[in-house]
């Protein structure tokens, strides 16, 4: 039997192979909550601290780990075997670079206005998306700090076309082993590096920023997506992994406080990765089964569409607020809560504006199509 005939047979007779026009709306909605956690991490520390919440959101960086795993999942899920290398790279460039370039330019203006200096090295590495390869926090967190994660995505995109054919060949058992093995390896490396570096600056670079290590979370997402195409179908209610994610987050946070230790972002993210993957799998399965739910609602899907812009712009807004309203940190608690809430609303409004004026139009033009980009992939990576 020819390879083509095998593919046709699998598609016709295996109900577990995803339909080509099924869109995973829940995953789009979940992107907003991941971005929101990152936003809260920054504003409850730098804009208007709130007792208790400021400490709890220190682990909000886990939202970035969610993005990496989701990126691998969506790219694998929506991958077309007949896609050329050039077309794939063009779509990936169109997906992230226009908004990155726009926020890079905005960051220059913001830094000039607030009187903060930056070096040519910071600017050059940032605009080229290589800042996360440099073990210097002034570099990898320079300009628009959240954009460090795009340097990781650039590596993922570069390697993906060469990795996906290998993953696609794996059986159910092998891809399950790859998914679980990657999660375990991620945790083992995080523990070893944290102990060896005493959870210092080197640990933050190697386990939080360094693209090769973050590649493990991406690969776990890729493996999970293929696992679902060949058989995995969680039938759990969405609320169970959501509650489990919340409980795991609180448990990791509380564990460090009880033990009087700081495990660092590397171990925190590694401990949360299994629950993140479970959440992604359950959400995707729920959409494949056409189950109703709030995560399929139009408002949450819109917020999910705006989440990339929210992620890339909120830091710049926070820098401006911190500069012009430094007194917020000492304001009454009620005023600080109101300020943080107002910040989130304004940040979302700015994100929506950039989505419609820059992100989506530029992506459409660079893709060379008038079709809405969001409708061309079964989710957004």
Automatic annotation (TrEMBL):
The residue ranges crossing the membrane are: 23-44, 56-78, 99-119, 139-163, 175-196, 208-227, 239-259, 271-288, 300-317, 337-358
Alphabetically sorted, this entry's keywords are: Acyltransferase, Membrane, Transferase, Transmembrane, Transmembrane helix
* Chain ranges of the Acyltransferase domain: 26-355
Can the keyword Transmembrane be found in this entry's annotation? yes
Q: Which is one GO molecular function term here?
A: acyltransferase activity, transferring groups other than amino-acyl groups
**Record-level GO BP terms:** lipopolysaccharide biosynthetic process
Any single Gene Ontology cellular-component annotation: membrane
Does the keyword field hold Thylakoid?
A: no
Q: Enumerate the Pfam families for this protein.
A: Acyl_transf_3 (PF01757)
Listed PANTHER family:
ACETYLTRANSFERASE, ACYL_TRANSF_3 DOMAIN-CONTAINING PROTEIN
Q: What is this protein called?
A: Acyltransferase
């Amino acid at each position: 039997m020819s390879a083509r005939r095998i593919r046709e047979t699998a598609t016709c007779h295996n109900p577990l192979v995803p339909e080509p026009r099924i869109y995973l709306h829940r995953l789009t909605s979940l992107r907003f909550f991941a971005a929101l956690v990152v936003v809260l991490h920054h504003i409850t520390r730098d804009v208007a601290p709130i007792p208790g919440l400021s400490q709890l959101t220190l682990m909000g960086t886990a939202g970035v780990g969610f993005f990496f795993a989701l990126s691998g999942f969506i790219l694998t899920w929506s991958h077309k075997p007949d896609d050329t290398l050039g077309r794939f790279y063009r779509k990936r460039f169109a997906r992230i670079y226009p908004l990155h370039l726009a926020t890079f330019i905005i960051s220059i203006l913001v830094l000039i206005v607030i009187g903060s200096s930056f070096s040519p090295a910071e600017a050059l590495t940032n605009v080229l998306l290589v800042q996360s390869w440099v073990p210097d926090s002034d570099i990898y967190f320079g300009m628009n700090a959240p954009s460090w994660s795009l340097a990781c995505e650039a590596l993922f995109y570069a390697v993906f076309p060469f990795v996906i054919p290998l993953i696609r060949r794996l059986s159910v058992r092998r891809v399950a082993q790859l998914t679980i093995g990657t999660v375990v390896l991620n945790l083992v490396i995080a523990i070893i590096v944290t102990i060896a570096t005493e959870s210092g600056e080197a640990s933050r670079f190697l386990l939080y920023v360094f693209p090769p290590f973050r590649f493990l979370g991406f690969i776990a997402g890729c493996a999970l997506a293929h696992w679902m195409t060949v058989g995995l179908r969680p039938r759990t209610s969405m609320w169970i992994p959501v509650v489990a994610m919340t409980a795991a987050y609180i448990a990791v946070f509380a564990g460090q406080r009880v033990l009087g230790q700081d495990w660092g972002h590397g171990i925190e993210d590694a401990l949360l990765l299994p629950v993140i993957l479970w959440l992604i799998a359950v959400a995707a399965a729920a959409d494949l089964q056409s189950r109703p739910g709030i995560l399929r609602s139009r408002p949450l899907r819109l917020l999910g569409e705006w989440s990339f812009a929210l992620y890339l712009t909120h830091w710049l807004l926070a820098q401006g607020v911190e500069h012009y309203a430094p007194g917020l940190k000492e304001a009454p608690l009620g005023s600080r809560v109101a300020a943080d809430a107002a910040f989130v609303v304004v940040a979302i409004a700015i994100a929506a504006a950039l989505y419609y004026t820059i992100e989506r139009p530029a992506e459409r033009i660079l893709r060379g199509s008038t079709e809405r980009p969001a409708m061309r992939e079964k989710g957004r990576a």
